[in-house]
């Protein structure tokens, strides 16, 4: 406020009295000066095989002045980063210590290959007997409510770390609430944390940056009221299809537009979009290239140089950035407009600063691989699994998004809103399935399929672009897009969900289930 007042006073004065020899200080400049004041926090890491995390309220210093009340994993936002070696089992006990008004909770390890009972089943609608946007028909198949965590209780989740006869791939995952009807509210209030699965045998020969040069970055947007508290956009939700929740403040690892001091060396940036609805089209202000090495499903077959990278809610990318060429400078990571003309509802990304990197002016030795070396590797980064070659290019089933009619419309998949007792597709254990994801609506969607990683075979009838010619599990669908994906149903039987990761869409019916038998 003081900066804004000073700017206004300067503009009101005659030119010869203005500060800096007549250089105008505008309100916009004063607003810009408030950015990059907070140092980037790095969440604490938990590395044990048997962990306990309380889900509890906390007061956090996010804005100057009054602390912000949030719901948290372990008392921080984001929650602690869980870091585990590939192939090693992990158990996490989550203790529900939020007030009874929070209702029952569910924790989903997003990107994990886990038994159905430990996948974060959403259960029935929040009231457990009715729902505005979802159906509730507790038939013989059950509603999944037995897997939920009631206030004052706890639940032990088992994550085997194995897939299809070998260790689960190293990747950048995250854990978050997945409660039917309340996932958007619960994540907005703070229930999200990061998970890194390391795979030294595969990544070691690539000579990637490690330690303090391996930065996990959770990007979210939030809106605060005049008392520094999170707003409650869920009290009176907007009707479908205009049910997005967005914020005016961009946070990285829980700090608003922070800065990170870095050496003039190469860094590995793990970027997660954990926003409820917003997409980000990430690029550096000076055009510094990013070498993409991984998606949410781990290392890609080949490294790719990218000028900008579009990520929707739930997606992750990993990039190598060489700060040596900008030694001694301050470099802004931004989100910018798309250049492909896709600006329909949900397709248009946020435009503005995300964070700043302050690069040391000292020359430092760097033994990691250059971007050119990673791109030119003859054997690539990591081969695709053998089952990809078995996948049929022709989908056996389609998951198609639509909107219902009526006074209070709902999102639908194949004409039905979510019912936890309903299964739309049954597949065999060990089968390699090929499915189509279709979005004929005028709103973008981020379709996420549980159970396994998926390989994209085509986008809109054409071979996918190079950055999607790899394993993924969350897919950006602009209006009228369709993608064909294949995945192998290994290890685990049971029910798994397919849903939009724009969380309000999920809460408002855009979720369905398949069952592995």
Word description of this protein:
The chain is mainly β and 517 residues long. It folds into three domains: 45-204, Cupredoxins -  blue copper proteins (Immunoglobulin-like, Sandwich); 205-375, Immunoglobulin-like, CATH 2.60.40.420; 386-516, Sandwich (Immunoglobulin-like), CATH 2.60.40. Helices cover 8% and strands 38% of the residues. The chain contains seven helices and 34 strands. The strands form seven sheets. The chain has a seven-stranded mixed beta sheet. A six-stranded mixed beta sheet has the order 25-24-27-32-29-30, with no helix packed on it. A five-stranded mixed beta sheet has the order 1-4-11-10-6. It starts with a helix and ends with a strand.
- Describe the strand arrangement of the main beta sheet, using strand numbers: 14-13-12-16-21-18-19
The CATH architecture of the largest domain comes to Sandwich
Characterize the biggest β-sheet.
Answer: 7 strands, mixed
Indicate the mean pLDDT: 91
Structural class of the secondary structure composition?
mainly beta
Query: Could you say how many structural domains there are in total?
Result: 3
**Radius of gyration using CA atoms only:** 23 Å
How many H/I helices?
A: 7
Low-confidence stretches: 1-31
Q: Name the CATH superfamily assignment of the largest domain.
A: Cupredoxins -  blue copper proteins
Distance between the termini: 61 Å
The CATH topology of the largest domain comes to Immunoglobulin-like
Strand count: 34
Report the CATH C-level class of the largest domain: Mainly Beta
Strand content: 35-45%
Which percent range fits the helix content?
A: under 10%
């Amino acid at each position: 406020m003081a900066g804004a007042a000073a700017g206004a006073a300067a503009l009101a004065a005659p030119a010869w009295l203005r500060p800096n020899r007549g250089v105008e200080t505008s309100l916009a400049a004063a607003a810009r000066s408030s950015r990059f004041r907070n140092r980037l926090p790095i969440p604490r890491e938990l590395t044990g095989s048997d962990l306990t995390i309380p889900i509890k309220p906390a007061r956090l210093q996010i804005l100057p002045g009054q602390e912000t009340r949030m719901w948290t994993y372990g008392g921080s936002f984001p929650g602690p980063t869980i870091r585990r070696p590939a192939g090693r089992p992990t158990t996490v006990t989550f203790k529900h210590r939020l007030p009874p008004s929070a209702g029952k909770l569910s924790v989903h390890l997003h990107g994990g290959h886990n038994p159905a009972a430990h996948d974060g089943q959403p259960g029935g609608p929040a009231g457990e007997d009715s729902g505005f946007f979802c159906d509730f028909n507790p038939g013989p198949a059950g509603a999944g409510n037995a897997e939920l965590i009631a206030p004052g209780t706890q639940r032990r989740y088992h994550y085997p770390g194995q897939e299809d006869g070998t260790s689960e791939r190293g990747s950048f995952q995250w854990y978050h609430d997945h409660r039917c009807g309340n996932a958007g509210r619960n994540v907005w209030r703070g229930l999200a944390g990061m998970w890194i699965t390391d795979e030294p045998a595969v990544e070691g020969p690539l000579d990637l940056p490690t330690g303090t040069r391996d930065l996990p970055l959770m990007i979210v947007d939030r809106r605060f009221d005049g008392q520094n508290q999170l707003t409650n956009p869920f009290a009176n939700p907007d009707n479908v299809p205009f049910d997005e929740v967005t914020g005016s403040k961009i946070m990285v690892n829980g700090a608003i537009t922070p800065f990170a001091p870095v050496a003039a060396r190469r860094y590995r940036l793990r970027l997660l979009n954990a926003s409820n609805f917003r997409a980000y089209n990430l690029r550096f202000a000076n055009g510094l290239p990013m070498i993409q090495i991984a998606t949410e499903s781990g290392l890609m077959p080949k490294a790719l140089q990218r000028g900008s990278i579009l990520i929707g809610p739930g997606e992750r990318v990993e990039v190598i950035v060489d700060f040596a060429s900008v030694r001694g400078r301050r470099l802004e990571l931004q989100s910018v407009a798309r250049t492909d003309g896709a600006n329909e509802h949900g397709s248009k990304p946020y435009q503005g600063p995300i964070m700043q990197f302050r690069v040391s002016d000292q020359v430092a030795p760097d033994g990691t691989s250059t971007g050119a070396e990673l791109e030119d590797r003859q054997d690539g980064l990591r081969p695709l699994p053998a089952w990809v070659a078995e996948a049929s290019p022709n989908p056996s089933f389609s998951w198609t998004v639509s909107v219902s009619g009526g006074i209070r419309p709902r999102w639908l998949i194949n004409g039905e809103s979510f019912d936890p007792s309903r299964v739309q597709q049954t597949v065999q254990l060990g089968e390699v399935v090929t499915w189509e994801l279709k979005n004929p609506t005028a709103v973008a969607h981020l379709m996420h399929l549980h159970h396994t990683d998926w390989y994209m075979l085509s986008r809109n009838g054409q071979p996918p672009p190079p950055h999607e010619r790899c394993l993924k599990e969350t897919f950006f669908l602009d209006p009228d897009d369709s993608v064909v994906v294949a995945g192998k149903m290994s290890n685990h039987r049971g029910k798994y969900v397919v849903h939009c990761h724009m969380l309000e869409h999920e809460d408002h019916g855009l979720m369905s289930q398949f069952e592995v038998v």
